[in-house]
Amino acid sequence: MNFRRKKRAMHHAEAHADEAPAASKVMVHPFVPQGDPELIDSRAGLDNFMSHVREEGSFAYDTEFIGEETFIPNICLLQLATRTRIALIDPFAFDAEALEQVWNAVCDPTLTTIVHAGGQDIEAAQRRTNRQALNVIDTQIAAGFLGMPWPTSLVNVVQAVANLRLNKGHTFTEWDSRPLSKSQLSYAADDVRYLPLVWHLQKERLEAASRTAWTISESVESLRSIEEFEPESQVRRAARGLGLRPRVMTILRELVILRYSIAKEKNLPPRTVMPDSPMLEAARRKMKSAAELEEIRGFPRQTATEFGEAILRTIETARDLPIERDRIWITPEESAEDRTRIDALWSIITMRSISMGIATALILNRGQLSRWYLGRNTTPEPLFPSNSWRQEAIGQWIDAFLDGRETLNLGWKDGGPVVP
After folding, report:
1. Euclidean distance between CA atoms 58 and 45, whole angstroms
2. What CATH number should be reported for the domain holding residue 271?
3. Please, are residues 349 and 360 in contact by the beta-carbon 8 Å criterion?
């Protein structure tokens, strides 16, 4: 039993010891379903609830899953809510064909799916339907357009928007065990119970600020990269900012691609196949035998035994790749003057976005700003795509500011910067 499963088992035992949790009072509101959730484990119950969802036209959606043991996360519970009904669906009680109506609803462009930080939850539906979800609202993203930090938790969003404090707990439990305790079911229900109300209230404020379209655009756009395998981002994470030589970065990239392939074949999480640190060490060493992999601290013995030769071939091939491919890993260094100017521009963008009531982290991070700024002389590209909400929200102003056509005038009110 691995460490995370042991931790789940401990929290699961605590959840069952708490069989009589303090009942959280449900807010009385037309957009909040009242009473206990419907526990659905029959085809008739599932068909009935999904018919109700389609009649409503919108619904809140969440899943409880275990993702650290398999390549594809194991969905253990489905939570759905409308303004008047809330359901917990046991996926273990149904075959794949029966659950298709849930996945199809999530990806149905005629239905609005409301989630909170729902990327992985939506991914489950997209994988099973092979369709893109195009009508999704993420209340975490909406919160970022309303002056809240991004990302922020559901608890904080419900508190800020509806003035209600949720009782949260038992999130990291054995969701694949049955029966689930009352406290587990209560926790799962609260993940979706208030989302219809939250979006209703957020939408009113977004419309007043003319930001509804931005929220919808970002909610959908954020899902496009969920299922895409992007080795570059994993390489950067594994490299930990160590400033490795380009050749080592190239070898590391090829190992990341191999790791993904093995993980998919064996239905294992990629970091179980090769954790980042041992994989980085393998990229840096000049090994001549698979047995040497086992000498690397933390390198999984099973991977070394079964795939050692493939790993060595991958490393050897990467050593001979054209040098042009290495250049994608060369990050221009910031001179002292560059750093001063980038820091100043980062501060300006931060103040501008805060004064507009948009979370800066939702727009970009300093690393993105630095790469763009340092590449302006050799690759004069815009900071944001011309048709994006980011360009409309702040990119046009940044372009004008850097050209001297705009100035930054700030005041201070209610504890924060404001644009006069």
Report:
1. 19
2. 1.10.150.80
3. yes
Give CA–CA dist 254/240, Å, rounded: 17
pLDDT tens, position by position, 116-125: 999 999 999 9
Tell whether 183 and 309 lie within a shared domain: no
Pair of tokens at residue 377:
């002389």
- Half-sphere exposure at residue 196, Cβ-oriented, CA atoms within 13 angstroms: 24
pLDDT in the model for residue 183: 87
Look at residue 1 and tell me whether its pLDDT is greater than 50.
no
**Residue for token digits 């499963």?**
5
Which range of residues forms the domain containing residue 81?
3-221
Residues 46 and 104 in one domain: yes
Report the alpha-carbon distance of residue 347 to residue 355 in Å, rounded: 12
CB 120 within 8 A of CB 76: no
Q: Is residue 113 located within the same domain as residue 17?
A: yes
Compute how many other C-beta atoms are within 10 angstroms of the C-beta atom of residue 11.
17
Residue 49 in tokens? 């609830």
Q: For 175-211, b where at least 16 C-beta lie within 10 A, e where not — what string?
A: bbeeebbbbbbbbbbbbbbbbbbbbbbbbebbeeeeb
Segment 50-107, tens digit of pLDDT: 999 999 999 999 999 998 889 999 999 999 999 999 999 999 999 999 999 999 999 9
Query: What's the predicted TM-score (pTM) here?
Result: 0.88
Q: Are residues 77 and 60 in the same domain?
A: yes
Dihedral angle, C-alpha 193, 195, 198, 199, nearest 10 °: -150
Query: Which of 329, 356, 371 is where one domain is finished?
Result: 329
pLDDT of the residue at 330: 57
Same domain, 247 and 167: no
Which domain CATH number covers 161?
A: 3.30.420.10
Total domains in the fold of the chain: 3
Q: Dump pLDDT digits (tens) for 326-380.
A: 555 556 678 999 999 999 999 999 999 988 999 999 999 998 899 899 887 777 7
CB 92 within 8 A of CB 99: no
- Could you report the per-residue pLDDT of 237-295, keeping only the tens digit for each? 898 877 788 889 899 999 999 999 999 999 999 999 999 999 999 999 988 888 899 99
User: What SS3 class is residue 194?
Assistant: coil
Task: Answer yes or no: do 146 and 217 share one domain.
Answer: yes
